[in-house]
Design a protein that fits this description.
Distance between the termini: 23 Å
Largest sheet: 8 strands, mixed
Order of helices and strands: EEEEEEEEHEHEHHHHHHEHEHH
Helix content: 25-40%
Number of helices: 11
Strand order of the largest sheet: 1-4-8-5-9-10-11-12
Oligomer: single chain
Radius of gyration: 21 Å
Structural class: alpha/beta
CATH topology of the largest domain: Rossmann fold
């Protein structure tokens, strides 16, 4: 049985104290703090570094435990650790919390040094590109000239593609999972429904709710419920819930929670409010909506013209209706058009978008095989 990393320690890197960080919008931000965790050890020339990128509600805590009392390990513990897909006995693995989030990196809930109060909507809007350039500063701080690989699913996959398209000289391989190079109108629409739910909560108070004793939990819970539906599939919901009633044997003919799927969504929505910030939800979903690697040229191929030295492993899942397989196929066609080294798999799964986290055996076998080949081809030595 493969083991966990055990207790891991959150770390923090701050930059931009003297010269503020310039964002794609033209706004500046400083100082900027990035929360991160590392697992494993560098080899002699620091050529074994892997950057793991998280999804919308994820954090830097990708593996291991923060304390002996933790009920659950990091969000990708199944794939990061000794003998696992990202083998920490061979690789030095880094995961950082994105700019704009609420798990230790600078975001709307952080204190504005100019006012001494949380930024709220005074925090500048950030993009996927801004998130990646902040990660680039972190790599400089860690003394990493070039990553062996960048890997992530969903929004994490967008960051992987941003790295490959705009910083190709700093990585040898890219693993975008269940993701897209551009949000479609449907994806933007789904994001906006979640944002509107938060706006409609009276406690949101135009983003100024910190320290008021009330948070826009109702709006954020609805946003999460909508989002959670998109992470599943019709088949997985049928298997998990069907039309089963929750804690009753017949319809109550009332407007209460009756179906098991209703109870599940309500639980997940309410639980989400205890660990995530509503304003961060606005900022991160907006960054995802802005993401479009076809701009400014109008083609994905042009975005990857300088990425021919990067090896790609692109993975999609047949039941993912949030980022359907055609998104990945469009990306693969663009990469082939510029002569990039691409391996593509469209994996049969009933788990929907969340398959990249739930298909543990398949993902372990696939990722481990790719990483073994990559390490051998690049001559990466064990620490």
């Amino acid at each position: 049985m493969l083991s966990s990393l055990g207790i891991v320690t959150p770390q923090y890197f701050t930059f931009g104290e003297d010269e503020p960080f310039l964002l794609e919008s033209g706004a500046t931000l400083g100082p900027v703090t990035i929360a991160y965790e590392t697992y494993g050890q560098f080899n002699a020339d620091r050529s074994n570094a892997i950057l793991i990128l998280h999804a919308l509600s994820g954090s830097a805590h990708a593996a291991g435990y923060h304390s002996a009392e933790d009920a659950k390990p990091g969000w990708w513990d199944d794939c990061i650790g000794p003998g696992k897909a990202f083998d920490t006995e061979r690789f030095f693995v880094i995961c950082s919390n994105v700019l704009g989030s609420c798990y230790g990196s600078s975001g709307p809930s952080s204190l504005d040094p100019g006012t001494g109060r949380p930024y709220g909507l005074g925090f500048p809007v950030v993009t996927i590109g801004d998130m990646v350039r902040a990660q680039e500063r972190l790599l400089d701080h860690l003394g990493i000239e070039r990553l062996l690989c960048a890997a992530g699913g969903s929004m994490g996959g967008m960051q992987v593609l941003e790295w490959a398209a705009h910083h190709p000289g700093r990585l040898r391989a890219a693993i975008p999972l269940a993701t897209t190079a551009r949000h479609s109108p449907m994806l933007i629409a789904l994001s906006e429904v979640g944002r509107q739910a938060i706006y409609a909560d009276p406690a949101w108070n135009n983003g100024d709710y910190y320290g008021n004793g009330k948070k826009p939990d109702a709006g954020l819970a609805v946003a999460r419920m909508v989002g959670h539906i998109t992470y599943l599939s019709d088949e997985s919901m049928q298997q998990k819930f069907g039309r089963r009633l929750q804690a009753r044997e017949q319809y109550g003919y009332e407007f209460q929670t009756e179906f098991a799927v209703e109870s599940y969504l309500k639980y997940n929505g309410n639980n989400f409010t205890r660990r995530f910030d509503a304003n961060s939800y606005l900022y991160v979903t907006k960054a995802m909506d802005y993401f479009d690697l076809s701009q400014p040229t109008g083609t994905f191929a042009a975005a990857f013209a300088g990425s021919t030295a990067v090896k790609f492993l692109v993975v999609s899942f047949t039941s993912d209706w949030l980022y359907p397989s055609y998104h990945s196929k469009d990306l693969v066609r663009a990469l082939h058009a510029v002569g990039a080294d691409v391996t593509y798999l469209d994996i049969e799964s009933s788990w929907g978008h969340d398959a990249f986290l739930l298909e543990v055996e398949t993902m372990t076998r696939l990722l481990a095989s790719f990483m073994d080949r990559l390490a051998d081809e690049e001559g990466v030595r064990t620490p």
